Each structure stands twice: as C-alpha cells, then as structure tokens.
Amino acid sequence: MKNLLTMNQLSNEEIHAILEDAEQYRLGKGWTPTNMVFVSNLFFEPSTRTRFSFEVAEKKLGLQVLNFTAEHSSVQKGETLYDTVKTLESIGANAVVIRHQEDHFFEDLIGKVSIPIINAGDGCGHHPTQSLLDLLTIKQEFGKFEGLTISIHGDIRHSRVARSNAEVLTRLGANVLFSGPSEWRDPLNTFGQYVGVNEAIAKSDVVMLLRIQHERHDEKSNAENYLQEYGLTKDREKQMKKGAIIMHPAPVNRDVEIVGDLIECDRSRIFKQMENGVFARMAVLKRALQQIEQNQEVNNNV
Ligand code: CP
Fold this sequence. Notes:
It is a single chain. This protein is of the alpha/beta class. The chain has 2 domains: about 5-125 and about 275-300, Rossmann fold (3-Layer(aba) Sandwich); about 130-275, Aspartate/ornithine carbamoyltransferase (Rossmann fold). Helix content is about 35%, strand content about 15%. It has helices at about 10-25, 50-60, 80-90, 130-140, 160-170, 195-205, 225-230, 235-240, 270-300; strands spanning about 40-45, 65-70, 95-100, 115-120, 150-155, 175-180, 195, 205-210, 245. The chain has a 5-stranded parallel beta sheet, sandwiched between helices. A 4-stranded parallel beta sheet has the order 2-1-3-4, with helices on both faces. The chain is globular, with a radius of gyration of 20 Å. Phosphoric acid mono(formamide)ester binds near residues 121, 249 and 250.
C-alpha cells in the first residue's frame, strides 16, 4: 500500500519518479483513473495551500472528492481519528489525505486501515508533499540537487518543512545550512550546519525562509527585531549569488521573515512553489491510487 507519511520512506529513485510524473502533469499529460475513485481530505489544522492544491489535484485527476471539516463531523461527538478513517474506508473512500496537529498521527492508523494515507502535515513532524513541491521547484530551476547550497532560515525546531527538506536535500547531494535564533535550533535535525544569517545568504543557491510557528511555541515569541536579526532584508537580498532564488512554504509573515517587497521579486519562487504543489500532489495521488485501480481491474476480471 502506497502511504506517503515521511520523505525518508521514499528512495531517491521513487523521488525522481514522482518529480518526473509531476512534470508530466504540468505538461497536461499523465495517468488518470478510468474507474470511479474516492479520496477524502481530512484537515484538522488550518490550511490554504495544501488543502486547496490537493483538491485541485484530485479534481484534475477526475477523482471524487469527499471534503471533511472536523467541526462539522462526528469528531465533535468524540470520534477518534482511527474511527473516522475506518468509517470513510467502509463507505468507499479509496485514500485519505490528512493534516493533523499531532506529531506522527499516522502511527495509530498504520496496519489497521487498508487504504493509502497521505500525510498533509503532522504537527512539528513531517510535510512530505511540501518537500516534493520544493524539490520540483529547485529541479526546475537548477536541473539538479548535487552541489547546491541550500540554507533554511528561522524556526527550524518547530518546522515540519525543515525536517522533511533537510534530510532529503542532504540525501540528494545538496549542502544544507541552517540559520536562525539559537532557541529554535533543532537538536534532532542533524543534517545541516548552523551558520550566521549573512554567511548563509551569501553562500546559497536557494534561500529557504520559514514561518515562525507561533502556534507551536510554549510562550508567545517576540518577532519585533526578527527581520533585522534573522530575516531577508533588501540589503541581504543584494548579497545573494547571481541566479540564487528565494523560497518560503508560506503563509508568509510580511516584513517578519522577508521584506514584503521581495515576496514577488525576480528571485522569488514563492508563488511558483504553490503552482507546483498541484502537480506534485497529482503525482503523489497517482502513486497511491494507480495500484488500487489495477487491483480493481484484476478483481473484475476474475
Ligand atoms: N505551506 C503550507 O503547508 O501552507 P498551508 O498551511 O496553507 O497548507
């Protein structure tokens, strides 16, 4: 069964195959199911990009979309995540896309449900489809990962994007640097080297900024001097290498992680990342569902 829970479950070959499929979808080609296939999107945390790009991806593939909102479901009556997913499986969902505030929410489901689970972000844990769309954006720009220097800036400790990206970019041959406040260093994220913000920006082919994850902090953080101390100012943008690009998973805190005027500058790929999110998610859905359809055809022919 083709769950997608973390990036480290994917081999390099599988990652390249997903990126190739995403490119095919960008060109208007690629697999679509011939049978009726149902997918349910379960979002227990707020989302704009991931939720709607999954929905667009599903509709482009011709899937039947079962949208779920926790506040209008039996979650309000105490139903567990397992019972919700098992219910959807029972009534015909062929896969579930889940965003949840709990790290590793999927551990309660693995081996107990027989439909693919796609992780759309688990707490501070992982965000594999964000990672795949980031890889697609970098590959479109540079055609490779080997030898690139990619700096990840900010709230590393609470960022599932940093966790997913640092591991896979290192594995694919990039040199990962981290930069940000010492209190937000992640002792468990051992893939990158910490350097000062000016050094990181001057050395990087990709400057990847992160949102401050206030909702995951024990105490409210003061972001007043953050831009000057750690963010991408206009002066720092001038120090970037020729051809270097700016990325951010978004939503962006304007004039905190990055000066608002730079969000749509020539170097910025922030909206390109969102566009690529649809194609990367189409490829992930293909990986999850193609085998199911083949199994259905085999069963129909028995
Ligand atoms: N980048 C990202 O995951 O955005 P959303 O929270 O809006 O889905």
